[in-house]
Design a protein that fits this description.
The protein has 193 residues and is mainly alpha-helical. It has one domain. It contains 8 helices and 4 strands. The relative contact order is 0.24. The structure holds iron/sulfur cluster (SF4) (2 copies).
């Protein structure tokens, strides 16, 4: 029986480029923007501790780490800010009641504290960030925004090999807050032992 493309990709530890894996989400964003449902005038409250509890998988963490490195941004200063964020918002401590885990909110280290919002190129952003958008025109401080869950599922179905790679990269690939995921799953000489 011929080997599936998913199996070959997994063995090679390869996936389609990050931009391909985000294309469906970026198209959706463009469609919303054409309707005037844009984030352009918003302070980006969805990236702060007020509303942000974004979690990412090992593959998303790897995409982000590789891009940060290519941009010369994987620096001791960035690593320190990731660690500060984990400590400040206690992202490495379970907030659950013993039966279920609660999602903690945190201000993302990649939030620029301005209307420029996120400092990550959309082709390398977490999928959940791209799927979360304004749902009416003229939003300035969040409020009427939502995540396109159906589109996230469609995207996942387009790249079945990604799930296998997540399990190959981490014994427990359950999504984690962005800074914790980067520090845990993308270790290197710069991140210490
Ligand atoms: S990666 Fe960007 S869009 Fe996602 S939470 Fe962080 S600042 Fe916001
Ligand atoms: S409009 Fe909503 S999704 Fe867009 S940046 Fe503001 S809070 Fe986030």
């Amino acid at each position: 029986m011929p080997e599936s493309s998913a199996s070959i990709a997994f063995k090679k530890n390869q996936l389609p480029p990050p931009s391909n894996r985000r294309a469906v989400l970026r198209r959706h964003m463009r469609d919303l923007e054409e309707k005037g449902w844009s984030c352009a005038a918003c302070t980006g409250v969805c990236c702060t501790f007020v509303a942000n509890s974004m979690r990412i998988t090992p593959v998303e963490a790897r995409d982000l780490r590789r891009w940060l490195e290519s941009e010369g941004r994987w620096t001791p200063e960035l690593i320190a800010s990731l660690r500060d964020c984990v400590t400040r918002f206690r992202l490495d401590q379970d907030a659950g009641d013993g039966r279920r885990s609660l999602r903690k909110t945190y201000t993302c280290p990649f939030y620029t504290n301005s209307r420029l919002g996120c400092s990550i190129h959309p082709d390398h952003k977490p999928y959940g960030c791209l799927a979360f958008n304004a749902r009416r025109p003229g939003i300035t401080d969040g409020g009427t925004c939502a995540s396109a869950q159906d589109l996230l599922q469609q995207r996942e179905a387009l790249f079945p090999e990604e799930n296998a790679l997540n399990h190959a990269l981490a014994p427990d690939p359950s999504p984690r807050p962005i800074p914790l995921a980067l520090l845990t799953w993308c270790p290197g000489p710069e991140t210490g032992p």
